[in-house]
């Protein structure tokens, strides 16, 4: 069953019935696709983001897919909001089995010699510190007590490429991999698995906006920019959001029970 289809007759690539998954950045984009895929696989879904109206739309789509959801309007850079979101999940569903730390911001491109602390702080707090805090709260309030759990971080292959002005973003996203590997060792004996999904250029609004900006800057057709992005990948195409969601639900399932502390690349074979 595709993400765009309603109904719950199939559990897709994973059977997550009876489990509860929290998705950050669920107000749109990859986060919305993740939420729908978890619902289609039978999980209850906790939707976390700052924008209430967009979260309500995600909740409506989850309901169309036959899923149950809870919306938690929260600023994940606020520790109290993180603590409360996990508490709300437990109050509603009685358990929290999966945490997908998907929310992120790109920040403003700045060479280090021109960098502002405010810009770096926004990127590091949203992309690295907030996932740590949410993971801590999920562990403290739910997963350690239950003796099981699955934590995922969403990183970026772009962080592994040396690009001027992206030092803050690279530091945060590469930090997620280190966080995931360390946390996996810390909690593995407790029955909790931790992995990082490293994504490439993903078809959707963010790439569309990037393509449009670059096309204007270079005075070329947008399609030529899009083709250039695709040609950097072994599969000669962009990654689809559904493909990321399918990997995520698989990692959360019993089929991936021996996989922890890993970086899982979903990049269509990105080479540059």
From TrEMBL:
The lineage of its organism: Bacteria, Bacillati, Actinomycetota, Actinomycetes, Mycobacteriales. Keywords: Oxidoreductase. PANTHER family: 3-OXOACYL-[ACYL-CARRIER-PROTEIN] REDUCTASE, SHORT-CHAIN DEHYDROGENASES/REDUCTASES FAMILY MEMBER. Gene3D superfamilies: NAD(P)-binding Rossmann-like Domain (3.40.50.720). It holds the Pfam family adh_short_C2. It comes from Mycobacterium intermedium. InterPro entries: KR_dom, NAD(P)-bd_dom_sf, Sc_DH/Rdtase_CS, SDR_fam. One of its GO terms (molecular function) is oxidoreductase activity, acting on the CH-OH group of donors, NAD or NADP as acceptor. Residues 19-205 form the Ketoreductase domain. It comes from the Bacteria. This is Short-chain dehydrogenase. Belongs to the short-chain dehydrogenases/reductases (SDR) family.
């Amino acid at each position: 069953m595709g993400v765009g289809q309603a109904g719950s007759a199939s559990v897709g690539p994973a059977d997550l019935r009876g489990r509860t998954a929290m998705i950050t950045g669920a107000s749109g984009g990859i986060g919305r696709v993740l939420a729908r895929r978890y619902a289609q696989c039978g999980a209850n879904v906790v939707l976390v983001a700052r924008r209430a109206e967009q979260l309500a739309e995600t909740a409506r789509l989850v309901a169309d897919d036959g899923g149950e959801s809870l919306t938690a309007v929260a600023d994940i850079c606020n520790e109290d909001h993180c603590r409360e979101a996990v508490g709300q999940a437990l109050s509603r569903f009685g358990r929290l089995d999966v945490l997908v730390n998907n929310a992120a911001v790109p920040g403003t491109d700045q060479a280090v010699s021109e960098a502002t602390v405010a810009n770096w702080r926004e990127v590091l707090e949203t992309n690295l510190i907030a996932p740590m805090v949410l993971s801590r709260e999920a562990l403290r309030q739910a997963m350690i007590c239950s003796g099981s759990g699955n934590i995922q971080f969403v990183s970026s292959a772009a962080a592994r490429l040396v690009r001027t002005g992206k030092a803050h973003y690279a530091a945060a996203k590469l930090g997620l991999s280190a966080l995931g590997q360390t946390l996996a060792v810390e909690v593995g004996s407790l029955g909790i698995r931790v992995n990082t999904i490293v994504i490439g250029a993903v078809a959707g609004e963010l790439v569309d906006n990037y393509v449009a900006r670059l096309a204007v800057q270079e005075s070329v057709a947008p399609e030529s920019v899009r083709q250039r992005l695709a040609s950097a990948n072994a599969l000669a195409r962009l990654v689809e959001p559904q493909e990321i969601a399918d990997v995520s639900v698989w990692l959360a399932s019993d089929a991936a029970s021996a996989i922890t502390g890993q970086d899982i690349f979903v990049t269509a074979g990105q080479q540059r």
